[in-house]
Amino acid sequence: MINLPVPEYDAKYDLNKAMQHRRSVREFKEDPLTLVEVGQLLWAAQGVTTLGGFRTAPSAGALYPIESYLVVGQVQDLNPGIYRYDFRKHILTHMVDGDRRNELAAAALDQTWMAVAPAMLAFAAVYERTTERYGERGVRYIHMEIGHAAENVSLEAVALNLGTVVVAAFSDMDVKKALGLPAAEHPLCLMPVGRKK
Predict the structure, then answer these.
(1) Distinct helix (H) and strand (E) counts, the chain
(2) Is 122:45 a contact under the CB 8 Å cutoff?
(3) What is the domain range of residue 160?
(4) Which residues have CB under 8 Å from 98's CB, separation 6+?
(5) pLDDT per residue over 138-150, tens digit each?
(6) How many domains does the chain have?
(7) What is the DSSP pairing of strand 91-97 with strand 66-72?
(8) What CATH number is associated with residue 10?
């Protein structure tokens, strides 16, 4: 279990400026990220914002079907591997040993540029959390939710002077295997993140 630094709640970067400067970034320096940076990105995606457990991204029925992972290649004070983000405690739990960036890039239709990013955020869904209440319509709600979370990450990356992009072109089975996801979790997208070249 790794405690992440407390997220920064006071904006130091204008939201309109972040939206203006948000771009899809696919070229990264090989410089490592910090725990502060990855913690802030994970909080932006799915972090708790109130005592009632509400999060940074809206969720149909407050069911929160999204699970968040950090894929580490080069992050200061973290060994390479895969970590699950626990939004309740703002901590990481180590899941898988070793650098899986190349494996994930191969699973993403051989987009080798992804493996240069020092880290990736990976998001998966437990569809049953939402479809049990909303039926097939719940699938649409989950896809809307991941869009909200990914945009939060994109804007937070701009504020941190980092770059990222949403990658959804991949083999679900290969990504699921590389991440070591449980049977009930299905990959939605990957977000390589790093310092812009």
Answers:
(1) 6, 7
(2) no
(3) 2-194
(4) 80, 81
(5) 999 999 999 999 9
(6) 1
(7) unpaired
(8) 3.40.109.10
